Amino acid sequence: MSEKALSGLRVVDLANNIAGSYCAKMFADFGADVIKVEPPGQGNPLRNKAPYQKDEKDPEKSGSFFYLNTNKKSITLDITNEKGAEVFKDLVKNVDVVIEDFEPGKMKEWGLSYETLKELNSKLVMTSITWFGQDGPYRDFKANNFTAYGLGGAKYVMRPTRWPDTRPAVLGGSQAEYTAGLIAYIATLSALISPKVEGTWIDISVMEAVSSTLTGIMADYSYLGLSRRTLPWAIHGFPTQENYPCKDGYVNLTPGIGGTQAIADLIEKPEERENPLLVKAGARVKEPEKFEALVLPWLKEHTKWEITEKAQKLRLAFAPILSPGELPDDPQIKAREFFVKVAHPKMGEVTYPGAPAKLSETPFKEGGAPLLGEHNKEVLGSIGYSEEDLKEFQEKGII
Amino acid sequence: MAYKILEGIRIVDLTTVYAGPMGTRVLADLGAEVIKIESPKRPDLFTRMTAYPDNEPPEKENWNAGGYFHLLNAGKKDISLDLGTDKGKEIFKKLVKVSDIVMENFSPRVMDNLGLGYDELCKIKPDIIMVSMSGLGHYGPLRDYYMYMTGMEGMSGLTYITGHADQPPLLSNYAYGDWMLGVTGAAAALTALFYRKRTGRGQYIDIAGREAIIVHIGDVIMDYTLNGRVRERAGNANPDMSPHECYRCKGQDAWINIAIENDEQWISLCKLMGKEELKDDARFSSMEARIKNRDELNKIIEEWTSQHDHIELMDMLQNEGIPAGAVLSMKEVHLNPHLIQRGFFDIIDHGKGVGKRPIGKQMPAKFAGVESFVPKRAPHFAEHNEYVFCELLGMSKEELKKLEEEKVIGTVPRFPPGRPTRLDLIEKQVGKGAGYADPDYLNELRKVFGEDIAKK
Question: Is A124 on the interface with B (CB under 8 A)?
Fold first, then answer.
């Protein structure tokens, strides 16, 4: 096996939710040895999360679990049990990182606080990802991706520029959680790189992770007193931000350096090049319906790729709105071999989205998700437990 | 012991606007030394000219006053250098020689055209790590497409699954795609740094913003790759949960998200609403039934939520163990007791003309035993010319002066004349419902962050 960026690094992943699992997945995909610790019986909660292959509710066939646990090893271990916690401590002695996402205080309740674990392994980096962090007034609030996203401040602006009175809509998928997972990965890795850090406990809050994605619009309030409900691109000199309907879906109209006058050439109406609707940003903001009347008839006669290809030649930064189903056949995605195909013992051949970044020397690792407890013998054996021990643990429901 | 996590790591930062600067800001928050390079002819214009403090650009050097720039570039150093000149290139190479990482987000052609591609930089510093961030990546047939955040998000699948069913697909409206690209850049840079620390080898990293977004909807895409099923946008509805909606509350444009995960929480909600009969109503008695009769149910719940303040309602619901969260506006984020108590905001002093402003952390992680630090304010244009050119690269002040005369460096960027506040546009748009202007915002901020906020 070729050397990977994080080869030799050992990580224990206790995460039940997306954020922690995704953080640990990045470690695994870049080559660290990651052990997913799952509760005996049902296994990790993500195994019970849709989509399932062919909708078969089999814990070995969850696409969510698969995607978020590629390249990991799986052991079953009940860390809430006293003996299980002892086994876990033996495991921690031999690793660099523990990632966990239990409610604040739970690890301590099980005798597995950072202080306790640090005594066993002074260089341990423990990363705790919770909805609101380890302290503060919301610490014990209940939350999920949906509610944390709104509290972070992102959702308030999730309304079309054209219809700012609309009920805000959540960003698709589980963005609050993925965001926190990416931040947790960076924080954990930086602690491992630092020559000065001798082990640390990292506290990550999903709500704060969302707030850290707001970029410029955050300064709108502290500098201007402004709270946006939407993002009018006209403020930035863009003519429009909306996605417009076309023959086979939607297309985004962001002019870019081609300039808005090029839109007249695109829609085969060069005589409209001086139309105030194209030349003056204010005019479009004032009368969006007139701008729509100008461009929609032509857009509706052309497909999103026809529009995009022609617009790009005119140096307009138009782009098609692609569905998840259109991605695997996209020419750029194909040329970059972005999707990965691997074999899985229960699911057969599985295709999933691959590397977030292409590293020339140490590319992302391709691999599937583990079966529940697949590596019990290997992992627990490596820290000195015999086959009899495992048998006993199994009988007692510890593994 | 006070130290910074990434102390001693030097990053040459060629990035502009949102995505790239976001990535290097994350690394600066961790303590790396980030040296931002701007061309005197082409400064980082957009963020430098957006959100002047209190809508008044200072009389002098208005390019140093943009609020967006302050947020995205806190903690960095700044030099001016024209890479289009031979001397500029030569100096750039000297800087690369004493640095660890180069990050850039030009169009894919630019660095090679300048003769400063990865292979060239390797000749100067064999273990350099170079991170290129672009919309669609540095190779492939669509490599040269003109791409902004809008295109990256639109082509990722994320936009397709976002928004209400009866409206067009919705972009993030806060440059989330840019954030994703930049922060993935930071993650990849550190991944390569870890490898270099162990092996001494550097590498080149190619990040496509679109791909960096797709990996964040991986579980949604699996429904297509496993089942051929395409997820359609459905507002706030969730395939596995109901109620799962954003409900209107009492007051102006106030909302709360409620997401019920199980029957226990549902029964608690019925009690709290004073509608215990609902839990025995066949239309709502199981998760399956509630998902099926979602619209009816949402109407009933909204009747109740619309009589309550969104913050009070959140506390009431949380007391019963129900996952609920107010939808916070930017004002409410700044005044939020939880974020404030957790120290999410740093109070950064920008000096004359701007004063102290709360700036959110861009790397919100707390490290036990590591003292946190407040990043220095975003640099003024070319503020660190002398430090970088003289102290780091050993040039004399005379040489510096000569470079300035030759326009290889400069202290005054090419910047639009006048006072481009765009106040008129903002006002027009706010009037049309694009947002709210709070005339009392400075007093609000002073109440929570101290009386000396924004004393110019």
Answer: no
